[in-house]
TrEMBL record:
InterPro entries attached to this UniProt entry: Acyl_CoA_acyltransferase (IPR016181), GNAT_dom (IPR000182), Trichothecene_AcTrans (IPR052523)
Keywords for this protein: Transferase
Lineage: Bacteria, Bacillati, Bacillota, Bacilli, Bacillales
GO molecular function: acyltransferase activity, transferring groups other than amino-acyl groups
Domain of life: Bacteria
Keyword Transferase part of the UniProt annotation: yes
Ranges of residues in domain N-acetyltransferase: 114-195
Protein name: N-acetyltransferase
Keyword Transferase on entry: yes
């Protein structure tokens, strides 16, 4: 399914109160910074052959962005060049402190993730008007089925800055592997074994 501005707006609304987005988006009234970051995450996911799940083009209730197990050596040179161009363009769209934070976050993510190939849940957002109706659970189950049906089945990793999410993800078989701090923001690193 094609991802469009409706999906980006949904993720922007879903992450409006997320501790990380609150922390680094300098102008809270202007969510263009949030949308620019989400656009970059989506482009990066596409260039690296990731998964994007959603239920509708015009009126989606959720969007999930998942990185597949990959070997960067298998990514085409063209995709690497395009990704580098997108990263350079991001320099002009986000403040320096956000870019610095994202660089630290990426290093932290890699250091806490499984050493073996794994899926990584980059973002999962449910439209605020649909929250509390079991959509997040349905999407997580669908994502886990994809990982379990791959040959071989792969583990999953995710990071969250919201302490309330830890118990939620534990109910899906995730384990808290590490808690890290970046510039005073606590990051909970979680993994789920292959089943």
């Amino acid at each position: 399914m094609n991802i469009n501005e409706t999906h980006i707006s949904l993720l922007s609304r879903a992450f409006e109160k997320d501790p990380m987005f609150v922390y680094f988006i300098s102008n809270k009234k202007d969510n263009n910074q949030t949308k620019n970051l989400i656009r970059f995450i989506i482009k990066r996911n596409r260039l690296l052959d990731g998964l994007i799940l959603t239920d509708h083009t015009r009126e989606p209730s959720y969007v999930a962005i998942v990185d597949r197990p990959k070997n960067l050596r298998s990514v085409s040179i063209r995709a690497k060049i395009r990704l580098n161009i997108e990263m350079v363009l991001l320099i002009f769209q986000l403040p320096f402190h956000v870019l610095r934070f994202l660089s630290k976050y990426q290093k932290l993510s890699f250091s806490s993730a499984p050493n073996e190939p794994h899926f990584y849940l980059t973002m999962i957002g449910v439209d605020p008007s649909y929250q509390g109706k079991g959509i997040g659970k349905k999407v997580l189950r669908e994502i886990h089925e994809i990982a379990e049906s791959s040959n071989p089945p792969y583990p999953f990793a995710l990071d969250t800055e919201n302490q309330q999410n830890v118990a939620y993800y534990e109910s899906f078989g995730y384990e808290l592997k590490d808690t890290k701090m970046i510039d005073g923001l606590r990051i909970y690193c979680m993994t789920r074994p292959a089943e």
